[in-house]
Specification:
Blueprint lengths: L5 E5 L15 H12 L4 E5 L11 H6 L2 H7 L4 H12 L4 E5 L13 H12 L4 E5 L1 H5 L10 E3 L7 H7 L3 E3 L15 E2 L7 E2 L2 E2 L9 H9 L4 E2 L2 H10 L4 E4 L9 H14 L4 E6 L6 H9 L2 E9 L3 H7 L5 H13 L3 E8 L5 H14 L6 E3 L16 H7 L3 H8 L5 E2 L3 E2 L6
Parallel strand pairs: 1-2, 1-3, 2-7, 3-4, 4-5, 5-6, 8-11, 11-12, 12-13, 13-14, 14-15
Antiparallel strand pairs: 9-10, 16-17
Helix pairs in contact: 9-10, 10-11
Length: 422
Amino acid sequence: MDEVDVVLLNPPFFRFCGSHNNRLPPSLSYLSAYLEAAGISHALYNADYTESKRFWSMKWMFDNFDPFIDAVDGKGSLYGEVVEIVQSFRPKAVVIMGGEPLIATKDWGNPFIAAHYARMLRRMNVFTVGLSHFFTLDRSKFEDAFDCIMGGEPNAQIVDIIRKRVPGYVSPQPLDLNVVPNLKRQFPTDQDTDFVMTSFGCRFPCSFCLVQQLYRELDQRVRFVETDTVMRDLQQRSESEIYLTDLTFTFAPPKRLRELADALGARGIQKSFTVEARVDCLTERTADLLTELNVRCVKLGVEGITKDLLRAFNKRTKLAQIERAVGLLKERGIAVVTYLLIGGVTSEEDYELTRSYIEKLAPDFVPVAIWSYDLTTDYRYDTQFSPTRLNAWGIDRSVYFKYMDLQSEMNPTVGKMLDYVS
């Protein structure tokens, strides 16, 4: 293990829950690109990685949640294990991610766990930098734990922060649109690198989503990565199946999608794609362009189907749009994934109507999330599979389990799940 000046650390999250996350964190790979260009030696350490290729379901982690609560409280052997590995690099500085700011829609880290790591490393005279949407939106809770907090997206300021040991809060600057993430400094070396972003931000004001809060705070609209940069990024990925993790890929105008399709053809890039979409951002023309882009799977943010649920989620969509979107995709042989959300409404009837509707719609997979991370409440133990958050909503766990019964054994984004009966 070579010594480096900086370790970019993604602390354990799912490992504290008994599972893992083998994907290279996008934000840290962008910071790696900036450090690489500046000639600063570094390693990108994903401490949530294991060699396992199968995953526990969210139901299993829901039923076995106590170790995660302990982790948030600063307990658990993974603290010692991870810091031991970090210190083996003998870094002068460690950047610690407390949640993925570029994809704040997904569970990727916990800011309280990240803060515990920062305190441990500072006691060892290591300069610590925090990166997370939580640190931007609720920084008063965390600024005492770190020497420095980088606000907003990963950006070029990381170089000065490291070289000059900049203290305190560094105001957000946008990520450059011509930067290709660096995949060469990852540890362990065989992480999954199939997450690619072609745009940043989201304009839709869904009430449950921290993305909307973050980009409102940053006062940024949706920004599209330069087409040539997207192509260079795709060419460096070894995977043939790529997840384009734009927060709403089909928000891009047809001209942009046409440009991407033409560029893929011109460069001979033969990959298939999974994308995220809203049901009100799918038209026949868009669906045809997705086919040309070789999109094989579309993940639709349905969330719920009753008026009360849609009002609580502030989705601003209609049932007719859901049915039309699913129909357009199925007609073209594109697999359909429909997200469902629990929270905001306690009526079991709303969830039963949604479950029955989705069952008839027959999507290929149904990710289920509990509405979490209300920053005005105690969100320490929140995850999208948190029994404490479900209890806070006053929703019976049988509702959650019925939603989970909609799932097949194969999650197209994660992989095969272990069989589990509670």
